[in-house]
Amino acid sequence: MTKAQKTAYRCGECGWTTLKWVGRCGECQAWGTVEEAGSRQGVHVAKGGAVTAPAVPIGQVSAEVAHARPTGVGELDRVLGGGLVPGAVVLVAGEPGIGKSTLLLEAAARMAEHETVLYVTGEESASQVRMRADRIGAIEDELYLAAETDLSALVTHVEKVQPRVLIVDSVQTIGSADATGIPGGVTQVREVAGNLVRLAKERGMATVLVGHVTKDGSIAGPRVLEHLVDVVLQFEGDRNSRLRMVRAIKNRFGPIEEVGCFDLHERGITGITDPSGLFVSRHPEPVAGTCVTVTIEGTRPIPAELQALVGPTEAPQPRRTSSGLDSYRVAMILAVMERRLNARIGKCDVFTATVGGIRLTDPAVDLALLLSVVSAAGDTALPPGLIALGEVGLAGELRPVRDVRRRLAEAARLGFTRALVPAGSMAGDTPRLNAPPARGDLVAVRGGAAASSVNFAPGFDVSEAENVWDAIAHVR
Known about the structure:
Layout: E1 5-11, E2 17-18, E3 34-41, H1 74-80, E4 89-94, H2 100-111, E5 117-121, H3 126-136, E6 143-147, H4 151-161, E7 165-169, H5 186-203, E8 206-211, H6 224-228, E9 231-236, E10 243-251, E11 259-265, E12 268-271, E13 290-297, E14 300-312, E15 320-323, H7 327-340, E16 348-354, H8 366-378, E17 386-388, E18 391-392, E19 398-399, H9 404-413, E20 418-422, E21 452-457, E22 460-465, H10 468-475
Parallel strand pairs: 4-8, 4-9, 5-6, 5-7, 7-8, 15-16, 17-20, 20-22
Antiparallel strand pairs: 1-2, 1-3, 9-10, 10-11, 11-12, 13-14, 14-16, 18-19, 21-22
């Protein structure tokens, strides 16, 4: 090989290139995705060519806004930011059997009442989809169905049907003759997705792609797939529960982190317009190890219950198990308890979970998590009607969180009567860190300044605490 001829290596996930082989991509940090991309003869100088349109000053570019068309499914429209925008490409990802196809088939039938919709399935036969459509009542004259796994055939269907909306279930089952590998492979998914995005933009056709997920919950296929599309929706839920949630993690036309709630049943899938109370247990008497908080999902306040169980163990490595919570966040809260509260849980198994299968990533749930573990360790129930809000810092301070008044208003609407929040939450002050009390026993802590009361609403008491010692003293 001459000096001018060099071998290039390319990452199949993100397209990063390098002149020598490496085991780990230097861009996306994925292992085993760098493969030889062929040889290249030095550096090629690009020459000028035809342009699709001349460059013009940005002030002269038409600012015509493409209005979103509702899908007919209210909770899905909420997540999309009003509906499907013409020419937009939406990726819906989720675990197998969680309800992606059912939701999209129902949305397709609703949209087919007003416009032509083409539903292409690569995972099922046309008769299987028809059976599901009969079961959920999704039969419309303008809803066209095709079972295809070849990209060229799919394009032919689009040219003949001329749909306003295209749904492909799923992108990993479609193959292209112009790409190497098997359908679902990195090269195939990149080629198919690129062609479908181009087709959608050229025709102004809203396109919905169904995507698979890996064992760790990430979207299967190359990372470029998420970059190509305009909207990425994550379908979540416990397969043992009827509750499903659709979360927007990317949206070029609306808010991100918006959440839609659905009830999956034998007759289809139904949107839940008021999910408050779904993630809270109604105990006849206060139970040790439980605490309620209010999280913000997009623009929606949702009360959620956290539960904890603490028990001694003889195992050399105590178990730390969490469900519905970030395990790293749970480990941090337990470390704060051991270091700042002298909590003797180093030789105890600690189990934490949420009710109803909801996944909480909001830092505002830190205080409720800490109080639930404290309650479980002391086998003492928290005061009835209490909710707790606040982010816990490594030094033991409580930090104010956003939208406190909206959270409290939702809690009051559901019948809660007391709230514990960080100092300054109601006025936007910066929290102060007091010195810890002289005695830092987890079960019998009494030190710290008394929590101050704040007027919020009749029959609803709000108390503010500056740190974790004040918070525990308040609930004792």
